[in-house]
Amino acid sequence: MNQSPYPLWEAYGVELEYMIVDSESFNVRPICDELLKSVAGRYVSDVERGALAWSNELALHVVEIKTNGPVASLAGLAKKFQQEVLEIESRLKPLGACLLPTAMHPWMNPDREMRLWPHDYSPIYEAYDRIFDCRGHGWANLQSAHLNYSFANDREFASLHAAIRLVLPLLPTLAASSPVCDGRLTGLADTRLDVYRKNARRIPEVAGFVIPETVSSRAEYEEKIFAPMYRAIAPYDPDHLLQDEFLNSRGAIARFERGSIEIRLLDVQECPANDLAIAEVVTTLLKELTEARWSSLSDQQSIPVATLVDVLSRSTELAEESVISETQFLRIFGLQDARLSAREFWQRIIPQLELTSETQMRIQRILELGTLSTRLKQSVSETPVHQELLQVYRQLAECLRTGATYVPERDIR
Protein backbone atom coordinates (compact mmCIF):
# COMPACT_ATOMS: atom_id res chain seq x y z
CA MET A 1 0.00 0.00 0.00
CA ASN A 2 1.30 3.47 -0.74
CA GLN A 3 1.05 6.61 1.37
CA SER A 4 -2.22 7.78 -0.15
CA PRO A 5 -5.17 6.12 1.62
CA TYR A 6 -7.55 4.11 -0.50
CA PRO A 7 -11.16 3.58 0.65
CA LEU A 8 -12.18 0.27 2.11
CA TRP A 9 -12.19 -2.58 -0.44
CA GLU A 10 -10.48 -0.53 -3.15
CA ALA A 11 -6.90 -1.70 -2.67
CA TYR A 12 -5.22 -4.96 -1.70
CA GLY A 13 -1.76 -6.34 -1.18
CA VAL A 14 -0.59 -9.96 -1.11
CA GLU A 15 2.81 -11.31 0.00
CA LEU A 16 3.92 -14.95 -0.21
CA GLU A 17 7.14 -16.19 1.42
CA TYR A 18 9.13 -19.21 0.27
CA MET A 19 12.23 -21.04 1.44
CA ILE A 20 15.28 -21.42 -0.77
CA VAL A 21 16.70 -24.93 -0.42
CA ASP A 22 19.34 -27.12 -2.00
CA SER A 23 17.83 -28.96 -4.94
CA GLU A 24 19.31 -32.29 -3.82
CA SER A 25 19.43 -32.32 -0.01
CA PHE A 26 16.59 -29.80 0.47
CA ASN A 27 18.58 -28.19 3.28
CA VAL A 28 18.12 -24.43 3.48
CA ARG A 29 20.35 -22.28 1.26
CA PRO A 30 20.97 -18.70 2.48
CA ILE A 31 21.29 -17.17 -0.98
CA CYS A 32 18.35 -14.79 -1.38
CA ASP A 33 20.85 -11.95 -1.87
CA GLU A 34 22.43 -13.80 -4.80
CA LEU A 35 18.99 -14.41 -6.29
CA LEU A 36 18.08 -10.72 -6.18
CA LYS A 37 21.53 -9.77 -7.47
CA SER A 38 21.01 -12.06 -10.48
CA VAL A 39 18.23 -9.67 -11.57
CA ALA A 40 19.46 -6.28 -10.35
CA GLY A 41 23.18 -6.76 -10.95
CA ARG A 42 23.96 -5.73 -7.36
CA TYR A 43 22.84 -6.54 -3.83
CA VAL A 44 19.40 -5.03 -3.31
CA SER A 45 16.47 -5.75 -1.00
CA ASP A 46 13.75 -5.47 -3.67
CA VAL A 47 13.37 -6.23 -7.35
CA GLU A 48 10.37 -4.80 -9.19
CA ARG A 49 8.95 -6.97 -11.93
CA GLY A 50 5.92 -5.18 -13.27
CA ALA A 51 2.80 -6.08 -11.30
CA LEU A 52 4.79 -8.08 -8.74
CA ALA A 53 8.09 -7.73 -6.91
CA TRP A 54 10.61 -9.90 -5.05
CA SER A 55 12.15 -8.93 -1.74
CA ASN A 56 14.28 -10.22 1.09
CA GLU A 57 13.19 -11.16 4.59
CA LEU A 58 15.07 -11.31 7.89
CA ALA A 59 16.40 -14.81 7.14
CA LEU A 60 18.73 -15.08 4.16
CA HIS A 61 17.15 -18.33 2.94
CA VAL A 62 13.68 -16.75 2.50
CA VAL A 63 12.39 -14.79 -0.50
CA GLU A 64 9.08 -12.97 -0.68
CA ILE A 65 6.97 -12.50 -3.80
CA LYS A 66 4.51 -9.63 -3.43
CA THR A 67 2.21 -7.30 -5.27
CA ASN A 68 4.19 -4.27 -6.41
CA GLY A 69 2.08 -1.73 -4.53
CA PRO A 70 -1.69 -1.79 -4.15
CA VAL A 71 -3.90 -3.67 -6.61
CA ALA A 72 -7.59 -3.12 -7.25
CA SER A 73 -8.55 -6.79 -7.16
CA LEU A 74 -7.30 -10.26 -6.26
CA ALA A 75 -8.47 -11.54 -9.66
CA GLY A 76 -5.67 -12.92 -11.81
CA LEU A 77 -3.02 -12.75 -9.08
CA ALA A 78 -2.62 -16.52 -8.73
CA LYS A 79 -1.38 -16.81 -12.31
CA LYS A 80 1.02 -13.89 -11.87
CA PHE A 81 2.47 -15.33 -8.66
CA GLN A 82 2.88 -18.70 -10.36
CA GLN A 83 4.82 -17.08 -13.19
CA GLU A 84 7.18 -15.44 -10.70
CA VAL A 85 7.71 -18.76 -8.93
CA LEU A 86 8.84 -20.28 -12.22
CA GLU A 87 11.13 -17.33 -12.97
CA ILE A 88 12.77 -17.65 -9.56
CA GLU A 89 13.16 -21.38 -10.08
CA SER A 90 14.95 -20.75 -13.38
CA ARG A 91 17.41 -18.41 -11.64
CA LEU A 92 18.00 -20.76 -8.71
CA LYS A 93 18.63 -23.82 -10.87
CA PRO A 94 22.20 -22.83 -11.89
CA LEU A 95 22.92 -22.32 -8.17
CA GLY A 96 21.79 -25.87 -7.37
CA ALA A 97 18.77 -24.58 -5.46
CA CYS A 98 14.99 -24.41 -5.69
CA LEU A 99 11.97 -23.05 -3.81
CA LEU A 100 10.14 -24.96 -1.10
CA PRO A 101 6.61 -24.10 0.06
CA THR A 102 4.82 -24.57 3.42
CA ALA A 103 5.22 -22.50 6.55
CA MET A 104 8.19 -24.28 8.18
CA HIS A 105 11.22 -26.18 7.01
CA PRO A 106 10.76 -29.70 8.38
CA TRP A 107 14.29 -30.28 9.67
CA MET A 108 16.12 -26.92 9.69
CA ASN A 109 18.33 -26.35 12.72
CA PRO A 110 18.01 -22.59 13.28
CA ASP A 111 20.83 -22.47 15.85
CA ARG A 112 23.25 -23.71 13.20
CA GLU A 113 21.71 -22.60 9.91
CA MET A 114 20.17 -19.17 10.52
CA ARG A 115 21.80 -16.36 8.51
CA LEU A 116 20.54 -12.79 8.84
CA TRP A 117 20.13 -10.58 5.78
CA PRO A 118 23.54 -8.81 5.70
CA HIS A 119 22.89 -5.88 3.35
CA ASP A 120 20.67 -2.78 3.51
CA TYR A 121 18.40 -2.66 6.57
CA SER A 122 20.82 -4.99 8.34
CA PRO A 123 21.07 -2.67 11.41
CA ILE A 124 17.35 -3.25 12.01
CA TYR A 125 17.72 -7.03 11.67
CA GLU A 126 20.77 -6.97 13.92
CA ALA A 127 18.78 -5.06 16.55
CA TYR A 128 16.06 -7.72 16.42
CA ASP A 129 18.72 -10.40 16.80
CA ARG A 130 20.39 -8.65 19.73
CA ILE A 131 17.11 -8.19 21.61
CA PHE A 132 15.20 -11.36 20.74
CA ASP A 133 17.88 -13.83 19.49
CA CYS A 134 16.65 -14.68 15.99
CA ARG A 135 18.15 -18.18 15.96
CA GLY A 136 14.88 -19.71 17.17
CA HIS A 137 12.25 -21.18 14.87
CA GLY A 138 9.96 -18.22 15.61
CA TRP A 139 12.31 -15.92 13.70
CA ALA A 140 14.40 -18.18 11.47
CA ASN A 141 11.92 -20.75 10.23
CA LEU A 142 8.48 -19.49 9.34
CA GLN A 143 6.90 -18.56 6.02
CA SER A 144 3.49 -16.96 5.75
CA ALA A 145 1.03 -15.33 3.39
CA HIS A 146 0.26 -11.71 4.27
CA LEU A 147 -2.95 -9.97 3.19
CA ASN A 148 -3.24 -6.17 3.19
CA TYR A 149 -6.52 -4.23 3.14
CA SER A 150 -6.97 -0.50 2.67
CA PHE A 151 -8.95 1.99 4.77
CA ALA A 152 -9.35 5.75 4.38
CA ASN A 153 -10.54 7.02 7.77
CA ASP A 154 -11.29 6.03 11.37
CA ARG A 155 -14.76 4.77 10.55
CA GLU A 156 -13.46 2.36 7.92
CA PHE A 157 -10.53 1.40 10.11
CA ALA A 158 -12.84 0.50 13.03
CA SER A 159 -15.07 -1.64 10.83
CA LEU A 160 -12.18 -3.46 9.14
CA HIS A 161 -10.23 -3.98 12.36
CA ALA A 162 -13.26 -5.44 14.13
CA ALA A 163 -13.89 -7.87 11.29
CA ILE A 164 -10.26 -8.97 11.07
CA ARG A 165 -10.13 -9.70 14.81
CA LEU A 166 -12.99 -12.16 14.39
CA VAL A 167 -11.54 -13.93 11.36
CA LEU A 168 -7.99 -14.35 12.70
CA PRO A 169 -8.77 -17.37 14.94
CA LEU A 170 -10.30 -19.18 11.98
CA LEU A 171 -7.32 -18.90 9.64
CA PRO A 172 -5.43 -22.05 10.72
CA THR A 173 -8.59 -24.07 10.05
CA LEU A 174 -8.10 -23.43 6.33
CA ALA A 175 -4.39 -22.65 6.03
CA ALA A 176 -2.38 -24.67 8.57
CA SER A 177 0.62 -26.19 6.78
CA SER A 178 3.26 -26.74 9.47
CA PRO A 179 2.88 -30.01 11.38
CA VAL A 180 6.61 -30.86 11.22
CA CYS A 181 9.53 -29.20 12.99
CA ASP A 182 12.98 -30.50 13.97
CA GLY A 183 12.31 -33.61 11.90
CA ARG A 184 9.26 -34.74 13.87
CA LEU A 185 5.53 -34.29 14.05
CA THR A 186 4.91 -31.69 16.72
CA GLY A 187 1.31 -32.60 17.57
CA LEU A 188 0.17 -29.20 16.30
CA ALA A 189 -1.44 -28.45 12.98
CA ASP A 190 0.06 -24.96 12.87
CA THR A 191 3.47 -25.10 14.51
CA ARG A 192 4.52 -21.88 12.76
CA LEU A 193 1.78 -19.99 14.56
CA ASP A 194 2.75 -21.57 17.88
CA VAL A 195 6.37 -20.42 17.58
CA TYR A 196 5.28 -17.07 16.14
CA ARG A 197 3.24 -16.38 19.26
CA LYS A 198 6.35 -16.93 21.41
CA ASN A 199 9.07 -15.23 19.39
CA ALA A 200 8.85 -11.87 21.21
CA ARG A 201 8.14 -13.22 24.70
CA ARG A 202 11.04 -11.23 26.15
CA ILE A 203 8.91 -8.11 25.56
CA PRO A 204 5.27 -9.30 25.67
CA GLU A 205 3.87 -5.94 24.57
CA VAL A 206 5.25 -6.52 21.07
CA ALA A 207 2.84 -9.34 20.21
CA GLY A 208 0.26 -9.02 22.98
CA PHE A 209 -2.06 -12.01 22.78
CA VAL A 210 -1.65 -12.11 18.97
CA ILE A 211 -5.35 -11.29 18.68
CA PRO A 212 -5.40 -7.46 18.67
CA GLU A 213 -7.24 -5.44 21.26
CA THR A 214 -10.53 -3.78 20.28
CA VAL A 215 -9.82 -0.25 19.04
CA SER A 216 -11.95 2.20 17.07
CA SER A 217 -9.54 4.90 15.90
CA ARG A 218 -5.93 5.67 15.16
CA ALA A 219 -5.66 7.66 18.40
CA GLU A 220 -6.92 4.71 20.43
CA TYR A 221 -4.54 2.35 18.62
CA GLU A 222 -1.63 4.68 19.42
CA GLU A 223 -2.66 4.74 23.07
CA LYS A 224 -3.48 1.05 23.60
CA ILE A 225 -0.95 -0.69 21.34
CA PHE A 226 1.87 1.50 20.06
CA ALA A 227 2.65 3.51 23.19
CA PRO A 228 3.01 0.53 25.58
CA MET A 229 5.05 -1.33 22.97
CA TYR A 230 7.48 1.53 22.42
CA ARG A 231 7.87 2.11 26.17
CA ALA A 232 8.62 -1.56 26.75
CA ILE A 233 11.31 -1.85 24.09
CA ALA A 234 12.94 1.55 24.67
CA PRO A 235 15.50 0.30 27.25
CA TYR A 236 16.71 -2.30 24.73
CA ASP A 237 16.61 0.02 21.71
CA PRO A 238 18.60 3.18 22.56
CA ASP A 239 19.02 4.08 18.88
CA HIS A 240 15.24 3.95 18.25
CA LEU A 241 15.71 1.51 15.36
CA LEU A 242 12.64 -0.56 16.21
CA GLN A 243 10.23 2.00 17.64
CA ASP A 244 8.07 2.01 14.53
CA GLU A 245 4.81 0.48 13.31
CA PHE A 246 6.63 -2.59 11.96
CA LEU A 247 7.61 -3.66 15.50
CA ASN A 248 4.00 -4.71 16.16
CA SER A 249 3.83 -8.52 15.96
CA ARG A 250 0.13 -9.11 16.50
CA GLY A 251 -1.67 -11.36 14.07
CA ALA A 252 -2.95 -8.28 12.27
CA ILE A 253 -1.16 -4.96 12.39
CA ALA A 254 -2.29 -1.45 11.51
CA ARG A 255 0.02 0.30 9.05
CA PHE A 256 -1.32 3.85 9.31
CA GLU A 257 1.52 5.21 7.19
CA ARG A 258 0.18 3.06 4.35
CA GLY A 259 -3.52 3.27 5.20
CA SER A 260 -3.84 -0.49 5.57
CA ILE A 261 -4.19 -3.41 7.97
CA GLU A 262 -1.97 -6.43 7.36
CA ILE A 263 -3.02 -9.98 8.31
CA ARG A 264 -0.04 -12.16 9.22
CA LEU A 265 -1.48 -15.45 10.52
CA LEU A 266 -1.82 -17.44 7.30
CA ASP A 267 0.59 -20.32 6.70
CA VAL A 268 1.78 -20.31 3.09
CA GLN A 269 0.34 -23.17 1.01
CA GLU A 270 1.79 -25.60 -1.54
CA CYS A 271 1.04 -23.32 -4.52
CA PRO A 272 -0.06 -19.71 -5.10
CA ALA A 273 -3.46 -20.76 -6.44
CA ASN A 274 -4.39 -22.20 -3.04
CA ASP A 275 -3.03 -19.15 -1.21
CA LEU A 276 -5.13 -16.88 -3.39
CA ALA A 277 -8.22 -19.08 -3.01
CA ILE A 278 -7.92 -18.80 0.76
CA ALA A 279 -7.30 -15.05 0.37
CA GLU A 280 -10.53 -14.71 -1.60
CA VAL A 281 -12.50 -16.53 1.09
CA VAL A 282 -10.99 -14.38 3.83
CA THR A 283 -11.59 -11.19 1.87
CA THR A 284 -15.20 -12.03 1.03
CA LEU A 285 -15.95 -13.01 4.63
CA LEU A 286 -14.41 -9.76 5.89
CA LYS A 287 -16.55 -7.77 3.45
CA GLU A 288 -19.71 -9.43 4.74
CA LEU A 289 -18.74 -8.61 8.32
CA THR A 290 -17.95 -4.96 7.56
CA GLU A 291 -21.32 -4.68 5.85
CA ALA A 292 -23.00 -6.04 9.01
CA ARG A 293 -24.60 -8.96 7.19
CA TRP A 294 -24.94 -11.08 10.33
CA SER A 295 -24.03 -8.74 13.19
CA SER A 296 -23.52 -5.09 14.04
CA LEU A 297 -20.18 -3.40 14.55
CA SER A 298 -20.87 -3.01 18.27
CA ASP A 299 -21.62 -6.74 18.56
CA GLN A 300 -18.42 -7.59 16.70
CA GLN A 301 -16.33 -5.31 18.90
CA SER A 302 -17.85 -6.81 22.04
CA ILE A 303 -16.16 -10.20 21.57
CA PRO A 304 -13.37 -10.33 24.19
CA VAL A 305 -9.77 -10.99 23.27
CA ALA A 306 -9.80 -14.01 25.61
CA THR A 307 -12.64 -15.64 23.65
CA LEU A 308 -10.83 -15.22 20.37
CA VAL A 309 -7.57 -16.48 21.88
CA ASP A 310 -9.35 -19.66 23.00
CA VAL A 311 -10.66 -20.28 19.47
CA LEU A 312 -7.21 -19.57 18.04
CA SER A 313 -5.47 -21.93 20.47
CA ARG A 314 -7.69 -24.83 19.46
CA SER A 315 -7.40 -24.10 15.74
CA THR A 316 -3.60 -23.89 16.07
CA GLU A 317 -3.61 -27.40 17.51
CA LEU A 318 -6.34 -29.11 15.50
CA ALA A 319 -7.06 -26.95 12.43
CA GLU A 320 -10.28 -28.05 10.72
CA GLU A 321 -11.00 -30.62 13.43
CA SER A 322 -11.07 -28.01 16.20
CA VAL A 323 -14.42 -27.34 17.88
CA ILE A 324 -15.95 -23.89 18.19
CA SER A 325 -18.19 -23.85 21.26
CA GLU A 326 -18.31 -20.10 21.93
CA THR A 327 -21.94 -19.35 21.06
CA GLN A 328 -21.40 -15.58 21.16
CA PHE A 329 -18.69 -15.98 18.52
CA LEU A 330 -20.88 -18.22 16.32
CA ARG A 331 -23.78 -15.75 16.52
CA ILE A 332 -21.56 -13.07 14.99
CA PHE A 333 -21.61 -15.14 11.79
CA GLY A 334 -25.34 -15.77 11.96
CA LEU A 335 -24.95 -19.34 13.25
CA GLN A 336 -27.29 -20.44 16.03
CA ASP A 337 -25.52 -23.72 16.86
CA ALA A 338 -24.15 -24.42 20.32
CA ARG A 339 -20.98 -25.90 18.84
CA LEU A 340 -19.51 -26.68 15.44
CA SER A 341 -16.30 -28.17 14.19
CA ALA A 342 -14.28 -25.71 12.13
CA ARG A 343 -14.94 -27.82 9.05
CA GLU A 344 -18.68 -27.61 9.72
CA PHE A 345 -18.34 -23.86 10.23
CA TRP A 346 -16.87 -23.43 6.76
CA GLN A 347 -19.39 -25.82 5.21
CA ARG A 348 -22.11 -23.50 6.55
CA ILE A 349 -20.39 -20.22 5.65
CA ILE A 350 -18.85 -20.93 2.24
CA PRO A 351 -22.22 -21.32 0.41
CA GLN A 352 -23.16 -17.84 1.66
CA LEU A 353 -20.13 -16.21 0.04
CA GLU A 354 -19.88 -15.11 -3.59
CA LEU A 355 -16.70 -16.80 -4.75
CA THR A 356 -15.20 -17.52 -8.15
CA SER A 357 -15.60 -21.04 -9.49
CA GLU A 358 -11.86 -21.65 -9.20
CA THR A 359 -11.87 -20.69 -5.53
CA GLN A 360 -14.95 -22.78 -4.84
CA MET A 361 -13.23 -25.79 -6.38
CA ARG A 362 -9.98 -25.34 -4.46
CA ILE A 363 -11.64 -24.59 -1.12
CA GLN A 364 -13.97 -27.55 -1.51
CA ARG A 365 -10.91 -29.70 -2.11
CA ILE A 366 -9.31 -28.40 1.09
CA LEU A 367 -12.48 -29.08 3.08
CA GLU A 368 -12.69 -32.61 1.66
CA LEU A 369 -9.02 -33.55 2.05
CA GLY A 370 -8.20 -31.41 5.09
CA THR A 371 -5.71 -28.62 5.51
CA LEU A 372 -2.28 -29.09 4.03
CA SER A 373 -1.11 -29.83 7.57
CA THR A 374 -3.56 -32.72 7.81
CA ARG A 375 -2.48 -34.06 4.44
CA LEU A 376 1.17 -33.91 5.43
CA LYS A 377 0.51 -35.80 8.66
CA GLN A 378 -1.28 -38.47 6.64
CA SER A 379 1.77 -38.85 4.41
CA VAL A 380 4.34 -39.82 7.03
CA SER A 381 4.58 -42.24 9.93
CA GLU A 382 4.16 -41.26 13.59
CA THR A 383 7.94 -40.95 13.94
CA PRO A 384 9.07 -40.13 10.41
CA VAL A 385 12.59 -40.83 9.27
CA HIS A 386 14.46 -38.26 7.23
CA GLN A 387 13.95 -40.04 3.93
CA GLU A 388 10.16 -39.98 4.40
CA LEU A 389 10.17 -36.25 4.95
CA LEU A 390 12.51 -35.65 2.03
CA GLN A 391 10.23 -37.58 -0.31
CA VAL A 392 7.10 -35.72 0.80
CA TYR A 393 8.69 -32.28 0.63
CA ARG A 394 10.07 -33.05 -2.82
CA GLN A 395 6.46 -33.60 -3.86
CA LEU A 396 5.51 -30.27 -2.31
CA ALA A 397 8.23 -28.52 -4.29
CA GLU A 398 6.77 -30.06 -7.43
CA CYS A 399 3.28 -28.81 -6.44
CA LEU A 400 4.74 -25.32 -6.19
CA ARG A 401 6.16 -25.58 -9.70
CA THR A 402 2.96 -26.98 -11.24
CA GLY A 403 0.30 -25.17 -9.21
CA ALA A 404 -1.25 -28.44 -8.02
CA THR A 405 -2.97 -29.24 -4.73
CA TYR A 406 -0.98 -31.73 -2.69
CA VAL A 407 -2.77 -35.07 -2.31
CA PRO A 408 -1.19 -37.77 -0.13
CA GLU A 409 -0.17 -40.82 -2.09
CA ARG A 410 -1.47 -42.87 0.78
CA ASP A 411 -2.58 -42.44 4.36
CA ILE A 412 -0.08 -44.54 6.32
CA ARG A 413 -1.20 -43.50 9.79
What does this protein structure show overall?
With 413 residues, this protein is of the alpha+beta class. It has a single domain, classed as Creatine Kinase, Chain A, domain 2 (2-Layer Sandwich), CATH 3.30.590.20. It is built from 17 helices and twelve strands. Helix 6 crosses helix 10 and helix 10 packs across helix 15. The termini are far apart. The model has no long low-confidence stretch (mean pLDDT 95).
For the biggest sheet, the summary is:
8 strands, antiparallel
Overall structural class, as computed from helix and strand content, comes to alpha+beta
**Would you give the CATH topology?**
Creatine Kinase, Chain A, domain 2
Averaging pLDDT over every residue, what do you get? 95
Quick description:
The chain has 413 residues and is an alpha+beta fold.
